[in-house]
Structure prediction request, 127 residues.
Amino acid sequence: QVQLAESGGGLVQAGGSLRLSCAASGRTQRTATMYAMAWFRQAIGKEREIVAGISWNGDHIYYADSVKDRFTISRGNAKTIYLQMNSLKPEDTDVYYCAAASRLLPPDTWAERMEFWGKGTLVTVSL
Prediction:
């Protein structure tokens, strides 16, 4: 069983910053390396969308157009990622989910093929 735990969400004013963290854990060999990890977000009544993703060695990084130049995804180690969110806007208000895959996936499949999911952390950006 693999668990993903997110932290760092909260309330911030527009223009402010937050840093999300995600750590994978579990007692199986599958948690030795998470070959792809990503952040998704979803608002009530909307489809979940991928915000940013990173490969196991950092060679491949993806950002949604809506967050480019404002958000930065990074790896702490094989099982930990962060999302630095700057210049936050009210439209960034969402529940943010961490996702991971224990196998190699082409970056253009990250949005559909992640295996493990966290429970989400709420980010609220006020005017």
Notes: The mean pLDDT is 92. The two ends are 40 Å apart (CA to CA). Residues 110-113 form the longest helix (4 residues).
